[in-house]
Protein backbone atom coordinates (compact mmCIF):
# COMPACT_ATOMS: atom_id res chain seq x y z
CA UNK A 1 0.00 0.00 0.00
CA UNK A 2 1.24 3.48 -0.86
CA UNK A 3 2.25 5.09 2.46
CA UNK A 4 1.43 8.56 1.10
CA UNK A 5 -2.22 7.54 0.60
CA UNK A 6 -2.68 6.40 4.19
CA UNK A 7 -4.32 8.50 6.88
CA UNK A 8 -4.65 7.42 10.48
CA UNK A 9 -6.66 9.04 13.25
CA UNK A 10 -5.96 8.78 16.96
CA UNK A 11 -8.38 10.45 19.36
CA UNK A 12 -7.45 10.30 23.03
CA UNK A 13 -9.24 11.54 26.14
CA UNK A 14 -7.99 11.22 29.74
CA UNK A 15 -10.37 8.26 30.06
CA UNK A 16 -9.83 6.30 26.86
CA UNK A 17 -8.57 5.91 23.33
CA UNK A 18 -11.75 6.60 21.38
CA UNK A 19 -10.36 6.29 17.83
CA UNK A 20 -7.24 4.58 16.56
CA UNK A 21 -7.70 3.47 12.97
CA UNK A 22 -7.00 4.20 9.31
CA UNK A 23 -9.54 6.57 7.71
CA UNK A 24 -10.15 8.16 4.32
CA UNK A 25 -11.01 11.72 5.37
CA UNK A 26 -11.87 13.86 8.39
CA UNK A 27 -13.06 17.36 9.10
CA UNK A 28 -11.47 18.74 12.26
CA UNK A 29 -13.19 21.61 14.10
CA UNK A 30 -10.42 24.14 14.69
CA UNK A 31 -10.41 27.64 16.18
CA UNK A 32 -10.18 29.02 12.64
CA UNK A 33 -12.98 26.86 11.19
CA UNK A 34 -13.31 23.24 10.03
CA UNK A 35 -10.20 21.75 8.43
CA UNK A 36 -10.68 18.99 5.84
CA UNK A 37 -7.89 16.43 6.07
CA UNK A 38 -7.02 13.97 3.29
CA UNK A 39 -3.91 11.76 3.16
CA UNK A 40 -0.84 13.92 2.51
CA UNK A 41 -2.18 17.03 4.28
CA UNK A 42 0.47 19.55 5.29
CA UNK A 43 1.69 19.23 8.91
CA UNK A 44 -0.23 21.45 11.31
CA UNK A 45 -0.66 21.93 15.06
CA UNK A 46 -3.77 23.72 16.28
CA UNK A 47 -6.48 24.28 18.84
CA UNK A 48 -9.48 21.99 18.71
CA UNK A 49 -12.81 23.78 18.90
CA UNK A 50 -15.76 22.30 20.80
CA UNK A 51 -17.99 20.81 18.10
CA UNK A 52 -18.19 18.05 15.54
CA UNK A 53 -15.39 15.94 14.12
CA UNK A 54 -16.62 14.23 10.93
CA UNK A 55 -14.87 11.00 9.98
CA UNK A 56 -15.13 8.98 6.75
CA UNK A 57 -13.72 5.52 7.30
CA UNK A 58 -11.94 3.48 4.64
CA UNK A 59 -15.20 1.75 3.63
CA UNK A 60 -16.71 5.19 2.89
CA UNK A 61 -19.02 5.19 5.94
CA UNK A 62 -19.28 8.57 7.67
CA UNK A 63 -19.88 9.26 11.35
CA UNK A 64 -19.65 12.28 13.62
CA UNK A 65 -17.86 12.61 16.93
CA UNK A 66 -18.60 15.20 19.59
CA UNK A 67 -15.33 16.75 20.77
CA UNK A 68 -14.58 19.24 23.48
CA UNK A 69 -11.80 21.78 23.23
CA UNK A 70 -8.23 20.49 23.11
CA UNK A 71 -5.45 20.14 20.58
CA UNK A 72 -4.91 18.47 17.25
CA UNK A 73 -1.81 17.67 15.26
CA UNK A 74 -1.68 16.70 11.60
CA UNK A 75 1.56 15.01 10.63
CA UNK A 76 2.80 12.54 8.04
CA UNK A 77 1.57 9.73 10.31
CA UNK A 78 -1.97 11.12 10.50
CA UNK A 79 -4.23 13.11 12.82
CA UNK A 80 -3.78 13.10 16.59
CA UNK A 81 -6.45 14.65 18.80
CA UNK A 82 -6.30 15.17 22.54
CA UNK A 83 -9.50 16.38 24.18
CA UNK A 84 -11.06 16.28 27.67
CA UNK A 85 -14.22 14.53 26.41
CA UNK A 86 -15.46 12.94 23.17
CA UNK A 87 -18.24 10.59 22.10
CA UNK A 88 -19.16 8.95 18.78
CA UNK A 89 -22.62 10.20 17.75
CA UNK A 90 -24.46 6.90 18.24
CA UNK A 91 -22.95 6.49 21.73
CA UNK A 92 -24.27 9.80 23.05
CA UNK A 93 -26.75 9.46 25.91
CA UNK A 94 -29.62 11.81 24.94
CA UNK A 95 -31.26 11.66 28.39
CA UNK A 96 -27.99 12.71 30.04
CA UNK A 97 -27.49 15.56 27.57
CA UNK A 98 -31.12 16.69 28.06
CA UNK A 99 -30.60 16.74 31.83
CA UNK A 100 -27.39 18.78 31.35
CA UNK A 101 -29.29 21.18 29.08
CA UNK A 102 -32.08 21.62 31.65
CA UNK A 103 -29.55 22.29 34.44
CA UNK A 104 -27.75 24.88 32.31
CA UNK A 105 -31.01 26.58 31.33
CA UNK A 106 -32.06 26.79 35.01
CA UNK A 107 -28.78 28.50 35.93
CA UNK A 108 -29.09 30.90 32.99
CA UNK A 109 -32.64 31.78 34.04
CA UNK A 110 -31.44 32.59 37.57
CA UNK A 111 -29.35 35.56 38.69
CA UNK A 112 -26.15 33.80 39.65
CA UNK A 113 -22.53 35.05 39.46
CA UNK A 114 -20.85 35.94 36.14
CA UNK A 115 -18.62 32.85 36.39
CA UNK A 116 -21.61 30.54 36.71
CA UNK A 117 -23.28 32.15 33.70
CA UNK A 118 -20.25 31.64 31.48
CA UNK A 119 -19.95 28.00 32.57
CA UNK A 120 -23.67 27.45 32.12
CA UNK A 121 -23.54 28.88 28.58
CA UNK A 122 -20.72 26.50 27.69
CA UNK A 123 -22.57 23.57 29.27
CA UNK A 124 -25.71 24.50 27.29
CA UNK A 125 -23.81 24.55 23.98
CA UNK A 126 -22.18 21.19 24.79
CA UNK A 127 -25.54 19.65 25.63
CA UNK A 128 -27.30 21.04 22.54
CA UNK A 129 -24.48 19.90 20.26
CA UNK A 130 -24.65 16.39 21.75
CA UNK A 131 -28.44 16.23 21.40
CA UNK A 132 -28.33 17.39 17.75
CA UNK A 133 -25.62 14.86 16.87
CA UNK A 134 -27.36 11.98 18.64
CA UNK A 135 -30.72 12.74 17.02
CA UNK A 136 -29.15 13.01 13.55
CA UNK A 137 -27.35 9.67 14.06
CA UNK A 138 -30.59 7.96 15.10
CA UNK A 139 -32.40 9.28 12.01
CA UNK A 140 -29.79 8.08 9.54
CA UNK A 141 -29.09 4.62 11.01
P1 LIG B 1 -22.65 16.23 32.29
O1 LIG B 1 -23.13 17.39 33.12
O2 LIG B 1 -23.74 15.32 31.85
O3 LIG B 1 -21.45 15.50 32.91
P2 LIG B 1 -20.80 17.70 30.70
O4 LIG B 1 -20.94 18.46 29.42
O5 LIG B 1 -20.42 18.50 31.89
O6 LIG B 1 -22.13 16.88 30.93
P3 LIG B 1 -18.25 16.62 30.04
O7 LIG B 1 -17.43 17.30 31.10
O8 LIG B 1 -18.18 17.19 28.67
O9 LIG B 1 -19.76 16.51 30.52
O10 LIG B 1 -17.86 15.07 29.98
C1 LIG B 1 -17.62 14.28 31.15
C2 LIG B 1 -17.60 12.82 30.74
O11 LIG B 1 -18.93 12.37 30.48
C3 LIG B 1 -16.83 12.53 29.47
O12 LIG B 1 -16.26 11.24 29.58
C4 LIG B 1 -17.90 12.53 28.39
O13 LIG B 1 -17.52 11.74 27.27
C5 LIG B 1 -19.08 11.94 29.15
N1 LIG B 1 -20.39 12.48 28.67
C6 LIG B 1 -20.91 13.67 28.97
N2 LIG B 1 -22.13 13.80 28.45
C7 LIG B 1 -22.39 12.66 27.78
C8 LIG B 1 -23.50 12.17 27.02
N3 LIG B 1 -24.60 12.89 26.83
N4 LIG B 1 -23.41 10.91 26.51
C9 LIG B 1 -22.31 10.16 26.69
N5 LIG B 1 -21.23 10.56 27.41
C10 LIG B 1 -21.26 11.78 27.95
Explain this structure to me?
The model has no long low-confidence stretch (mean pLDDT 93). Helix 1 packs antiparallel against helix 2. The chain contains two helices and nine strands. The chain is globular and about 55 Å long. Strands 1, 2, 3, 4, 5, 6, 7, 8 and 9 form a nine-stranded mixed beta sheet that branches. The protein has two domains: 3-89, F0F1 ATP synthase delta/epsilon subunit, N-terminal (ATP Synthase, domain 1), CATH 2.60.15.10; 92-140, ATP synthase delta/epsilon subunit, C-terminal domain (Single alpha-helices involved in coiled-coils or other helix-helix interfaces, Up-down Bundle), CATH 1.20.5.440. The chain has 141 residues and is an alpha+beta fold. The structure holds adenosine-5'-triphosphate.
Shape: globular
Beta-strand residue fraction: 35-45%
- The total number of structural domains is 2
- Chain-averaged pLDDT: 93
- Based on the coordinates given, report the CATH architecture of the largest domain: Sandwich
The count of helical stretches stands at 2
Helix content: 25-40%
CATH superfamily of the largest domain: F0F1 ATP synthase delta/epsilon subunit, N-terminal
How would a textbook summarize the main sheet?
Answer: 9 strands, mixed
Determine Rg (CA atoms, Å).
Answer: 16 Å
What distance separates the N and C termini? 31 Å
Q: Can you list the ligands bound to this structure?
A: adenosine-5'-triphosphate
Spell the H/E element sequence. EEEEEEEEEHH
Classify the fold: give the CATH topology of the largest domain.
ATP Synthase, domain 1
Helix/strand/pairing category = alpha+beta
Amino acid sequence: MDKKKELKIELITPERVLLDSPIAFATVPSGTGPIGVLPGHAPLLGNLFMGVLMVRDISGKEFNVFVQSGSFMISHSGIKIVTPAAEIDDQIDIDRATAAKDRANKILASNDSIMDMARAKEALIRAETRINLAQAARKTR
